[in-house]
Design goal:
By secondary structure, this protein is α/β, with parallel strands linked by helices. The protein folds into 2 domains: about 5-75, no CATH class; about 80-260, Rossmann fold. Helices cover about 40% and strands about 15% of the residues. It has 10 helices and 8 strands. Strands 1-2-6-5-4-3-7-8 form an 8-stranded mixed sheet, with helices on both faces. Helix 4 (about 100-115) runs parallel beside helix 5. The longest helix is centred in the middle third of the chain and has 16 residues, at about 100-115. The chain is elongated, with a radius of gyration of 19 Å.
């Protein structure tokens, strides 16, 4: 008979309940009966790697957030999220402008070049541009999915998904090919992970009704720093509103590095 472990039990429940935090927690609370062989079969069938809240390699920064993921499914280098001081979330509009894309390339690429890891949701627009820029600069990137770990979304970023698996880290609290859900909580739940992993969240571009502001809200709730790229004064810009309310302005890579407490080493 297979031996049950805390890790294997949590993974089995996460697969069974499709990564839904409340359902997994409820199963644990009521001590749901489990068949050891079934638990083992679930774990062996996974193509990806896993870590649980009880494991030593679980990202420390996520232990402090609202509803810390009980299980993370991932491909790539999990150590990239072991230090929140080295992680920067770069997020923004899916319908990004030429200006927003240009700034994402400059800033995310520049930050990554100095050894920081860029974290995003791999969404269309600003997220995807920032992630590519980080990798193109020879740096590292993390994509946090709102879909299952084996479901690249959007499909237009499938090549980027494959690249991040090889050069960075792709993670999700959803198993397998869990599709984009009609449940409005799926992507906001993903956003809490993005905010939780990083010391600093940079908003590259967003309007007043952008879902990016959900990530901003989580970051502020978690006591993290939020900074913004300024936008045209006559445009609908959540960035400008956040700046007006006290968010630091990021106009250059050095602005971001200063916020991160980066110090240029002698000889560089």
């Amino acid at each position: 008979m297979e031996r049950l472990t805390t890790h294997s039990i949590l993974v089995h429940l996460a697969v069974k309940y499709e990564g839904e935090w409340d359902r997994i927690y409820d199963a644990i609370k009521r001590k749901e009966h489990l068949e050891p062989n079934e638990v083992a079969s679930t774990n062996k069938a996974l193509k990806c790697k896993t870590t649980t809240l009880m494991d030593p390699d679980y990202p420390p920064s996520l232990k402090k957030i609202y509803k810390p993921p009980l299980v993370l499914f991932y491909y790539g280098d999990l150590s990239l999220v072991s230090e929140e001081e080295k992680c920067v979330s770069y997020v923004g509009s899916r319908d990004s402008s030429t200006y927003g894309n240009k700034m994402a390339e400059i800033l995310a690429g520049g930050i990554a070049k100095e050894g920081f890891t860029i974290v995003s949701g791999m969404a269309r627009g600003i997220d995807g541009v920032a992630t590519r820029a980080a990798l193109d600069a020879g740096g590292k990137a993390v994509a946090v999915l709102g879909t299952g770990i084996d479901f690249p979304y959007p499909s237009s970023n499938t090549d980027l998904y494959k690249r991040i698996k090889e050069e960075g880290l792709v993670l999700s609290e959803r198993p397998g090919r869990y599709p984009p859900s009609q449940d409005k909580d799926t992507f906001p739940a993903r956003n809490r992970i993005i905010a939780g992993l990083s010391k600093l969240t940079i908003v590259g571009e967003a309007n007043r009704h952008s879902g990016t502001l959900i990530t901003v809200g989580y970051a502020l709730d978690f006591g993290k720093d939020v900074a913004c790229v300024p936008y045209h004064a006559d445009e609908d810009s959540a960035c400008n509103l956040l700046i007006r309310d006290g968010a630091p302005v990021v106009c250059s890579t050095m602005d971001a590095l200063d916020l991160l407490g980066w110090v240029k080493e002698k000889g560089d």
